[in-house]
Amino acid sequence: MKQKISKRQEAILAGFSGNHKLAKSLFNDEDAKVRSAALSSLEKLGKLSKEILNKAICDTSSEVRKRGIEIIAKRDEPLPLKTLEDEDPLVLETACWAAGEKEKPSSELIRKLCSIAKSHEDQLCRESAVAALGSIGSPSGLETVLSALKDKPAIRRRAAIALAAFDDPKVDDALKESLNDRDWQVRQIAEDLLDANRVISSVEIGPRPN
Predict the structure, then answer these.
(1) One pLDDT digit (tens) per residue for the chain, 210 residues
(2) How many domains does the chain have?
(3) Inside any domain, residue 85
(4) pTM value surpassing 0.85
(5) Are residues 37 and 118 in the same domain?
(6) CATH number of domain containing 201
(7) Which residues, including other chains, have CB under 8 Å from residue 126's CB and lie 6 or more apart?
(8) Which domain holds residue 129?
């Protein structure tokens, strides 16, 4: 007797069989896992419209919203600002990561990342926002990254790495101060980046003429 497959399995298989109509219909299912699987299949088949994607990032399920944001991160379209206001920390953390994947993000998006990095109660969200600011490398995010060097150890490590993206005299000063950080990994990152900066400077200056 042939075993009946679940709707979630149907949604997954639709992505392999090319049945985008089935995937689209299953996106309206009451089960969030089915909707999430259908969303992935529609993207796999190149049939995921902006309308459905916008519905996904506004879904009542955090699982569906998170999957929608992961998909947007790989697309050319900008990340909707509302994703950086999600109440679920795991979704917000994903949105911060997605923001860091975007080229030429808006100034408003950077401001939201700065706000999350400075004051969000969830440590992983702050860490993800700092990482995104480092990935973007906008000068307007530098002060926030510098202030993150006073946060929890994991965030200080992320901030030290993020400083590599900025070209500012404050960077070397901050890295030198981080050589005395309580966390050995922060100290190691700071030392490695300072050494790299010295190598780059020596190459730019070049050998002295005889």
Answers:
(1) 456 889 999 999 999 999 999 999 999 999 999 999 999 999 999 999 999 999 999 999 999 999 999 999 999 989 999 999 999 999 999 999 999 999 889 999 999 999 999 999 999 999 999 999 999 999 999 999 999 999 999 999 999 999 999 999 999 999 999 999 999 999 999 999 999 877 665 555 455 555
(2) 2
(3) no
(4) yes
(5) no
(6) 1.25.10.10
(7) 116, 117, 118, 120, 148, 151, 152, 155
(8) 110-210
